[in-house]
Amino acid sequence: MTTTTADTAVTTESAVTAEGVDTAEQPTLQRFQPTDLDAAPEVNALLERLGLGRLDQDGLASFGGRNDNWAGRTSGGRQVFVKTVARAAEGGSPQLDRALAFEHLAAHRPAGSPLRTPGHLGSDRTAAVGVYVLLPGARSGSELALDDAFDEELCREAGRAVGALHALPADRAEQPEPVTEDAPLPPMPWLEALPWSTVQERSMGQIAAWRLVQDDDQVIAALHALRAAERAAPHAPVHCDLRFDQFLRHDGKLYLCDWEEFRLADPARDVGAFAGEWLFHATYAVFAPGAGQEEGPAAGFGLDHAEIIERGAASLRRHTPRITAFWQGYLEQLALEGRAPDAGLAERAAGFAGWHMFDRLLATAELHATLNPVARAAAGIGRTLLLNPSGSVATIGLAQPSGSSR
Ligand SMILES: Nc1ncnc2c1ncn2[C@@H]1O[C@H](COP(=O)(O)OP(=O)(O)O)[C@@H](O)[C@H]1O
Ligand SMILES: [Mg+2]
């Protein structure tokens, strides 16, 4: 969850999308060279079994992500998105099983549900391959955020989608049942010390980022308390890996993909992750070159701490209305379904948003030899949220709307 690796080089190109976005400003598109299909014969084998024809390497695209994926038109004329996920040593794939559990539950969505997902066409559980309807010309939420196009209305729509997800009937008796095991992060034993095997694989920047957590007894205690609160909270069907790049905008509608972490868990995880994405974006975006900034050194080098904090705070104020829009959409959708959030949800979400800052920091630190000043500022915000979640709820835009009964 923390790392995003690709065998192929990142080619963040500017190109015109099939969606026909205005050409004055070239939109951000993250596209990769797909892995050779000859090395993954299970892909075409499954497509043929599904009666969809075969994919040809020519003209295929791949999108960023942890797993290999291929997007293109089959010889049968079907536009598909195919992905392979990790296989367990003993065969099968818990990741794919979780995604299938979601598909199973999602089949009960009412028509017109704001929870939209790319249609699932079929999977091979042994080979750990899934085939979905391609949303041609779709842009991911992370691309939209980089272009400042993930606006309040889209955030509200995201909130509705996540509200509809959390309101799905989790108690259905049919198989396969959603997984109930603990969500994977934070890896609590790592808070004490990194296992030696992982130290060897990590960059100096990541080790420095982990030390920020490990040397901070208050952060560790807060993470343990958050885990305990999560266990005691009412659980619901939860995405559990809700980052910007799991959202897709296609034909003006929002879709949610990548269900391999799906399980019954604390709904505050999803709310907190979405808020944390914006907080991290807000802290990073102000210093990223080319992200709408007229000036300013990349990653905050050359700025003094006070300047970083001031610019960061201004950026946070600009972005929190989007978290509020998400939260309003979320509450509206729950209310439509006759539900209300449990009393502690917003506070736990603030804690998870704090953890999310560390999580993203650990992921981005992978590429660096040192921790840059902006990374440290992001960690500082994460720390504040973790140590004082109840005092942070309103600041990050998760307050109960006035006039609400709770
Ligand atoms: N059906 C689809 N149509 C178009 N693009 C998709 C589709 N599904 C996923 N994507 C894009 O591909 C990216 C990677 O897919 P995802 O399922 O998130 O894989 P990973 O597990 O590798 O993160 C997503 O971030 C999204 O931008
Ligand atoms: Mg993904």
Layout of strands and helices, then pairs:
Layout: E1 11-14, E2 28-32, H1 41-49, E3 62-63, E4 69-73, E5 79-84, H2 94-106, E6 120-124, E7 129-133, E8 139-140, H3 141-146, H4 152-166, H5 196-201, H6 204-214, H7 217-232, E9 236-238, E10 247-250, E11 253-256, E12 263-265, H8 268-285, H9 305-336, H10 345-365, H11 373-387, H12 389-392
Antiparallel strand pairs: 1-2, 2-3, 4-5, 5-7, 6-7, 8-10, 9-12, 10-11
Bound molecules: adenosine-5'-diphosphate (ADP) and magnesium ion (MG).
Describe it for me?
The structure is a single chain. The chain is of the alpha+beta class and 406 residues long. Helices cover 41% and strands 12% of the residues. It is built from twelve helices and twelve strands. The strands form four sheets. Strands 4-5-7-6 form a four-stranded antiparallel sheet, with helices on both faces. Helix 6 packs antiparallel against helix 10 (345-365). Magnesium ion binds next to loops.
